[in-house]
Amino acid sequence: MLEVFLYWTAVSLVMWGAVSFPARPLRLGTRLGPVFVSVPHQTVSLTGAQTLCPRRQRIGNFKTEPPSLFRGRGDHPKQGRIKKRIEAEDVMINIGKGATVPEPPAGHKWKTVQHDNKVTWLASWSENIQGQIKYVMLNPTSRLKGEKDWAKYETARKLKDIVEKIREQYRADWKSKEMKVRQRAVAVYFIDILALRAGNEKDADESADTVGCCSLRVEHLTLHEEMDGKEHVVEFDFLGKDSIRYYNRMSVEKQVFKNIGLFMKDKVPGDDLFDRLTTATLNKHLSELMEGLTAKVFRTFNASRTLQDQLDELTEEDDTTPAKLLSYNRANRAVAILCNHQVRPHPPGTVPTPTLALRPHPPWH
Fold first, then answer.
1. What is the DSSP letter of 27?
2. Count of CB atoms within 10 A of residue 128's CB?
3. What is the pTM of this model?
4. The pairing of beta strand 221-227 with beta strand 123-126
5. Which residues neighbour 271 within 8 Å (Cβ) at sequence distance 6 or greater?
6. One pLDDT digit (tens) per residue for the chain, 365 residues
């Protein structure tokens, strides 16, 4: 039954017309806008591709997971629960008006069939462990995904023009009389210099104990007046996204060091470091500084800047192709270190040698 279901799921999700499109004719070469556009007729493909006028675009995933035990990331509280089989009755199809609705497996029917041209997903269902909605989307190499990435990098390019002004402001806010302003200023500093994620509020009983900048607790930071010949060192140790361990020691500016000590005063290890700050209020503040600015934009900006600086430093005009490839891989590794991208987490109970240990401020800072 599972094979039949997955076969028909694959058929339904690669349908040409599995998303909703404006009902108007389109000439060849017309630029695609924020919503998919298409021509009147549908064709079916089992190659994981979908046709968009005037090109065929690859589908990302088009299979559901089979029943299994839930593993989760890290020490997840729901580890070991049974993931139920996804049936056709769980699946929502998003298809163009007038398109032929794909047949579900025999004896089954789709949960709903809708025609929403304001979203880019092709099908969706909810998994039973965490209630998360899973989507079938276009492949990252598709044109629509590419345009979204292009917009992301354009926003980061805009940040380049005002980042020094933002840095001047958060430095001034380090001495603000309002505690919430000081906390916000230090948080923005961490996000800017360390490329930390903002972190989201979540139910501790339902999710793994992972944190971001705004959800850091006192236990995640250790202050050292002096360490390895450096002054005002902050030692970070916590689980970030996907339960990947973030471990770093960094020499920070004196006022930041003082503020962190102030934020920790009279608190126990499990208390929030930034008790007057949330991800929502932080991003609201950032959006007031620049339209579309979020903590994620800072990560994109600093990662791009690091890559470019490394390429400038490591490459010469007359380098051979293998030498250029080696330089690119080294530059890419520097970005991975900055963003804490790792192949696998460190084994429990081990203390890794921090590759970012006592890292100086970036050259552009």
1. -
2. 15
3. 0.67
4. unpaired
5. 217, 218
6. 333 333 333 333 333 333 333 333 323 232 323 333 332 333 334 345 555 555 677 888 778 888 999 887 767 788 889 999 999 999 999 988 888 888 888 999 999 999 988 888 889 999 998 888 999 888 878 877 788 788 888 988 999 999 999 999 999 999 999 999 999 999 999 999 988 988 765 545 445 678 899 999 999 999 999 998 999 999 999 988 877 889 999 999 999 999 999 999 999 999 999 999 999 999 999 999 999 898 889 989 989 999 999 999 999 989 999 999 999 999 999 988 888 877 654 544 555 544 444 344 444 44
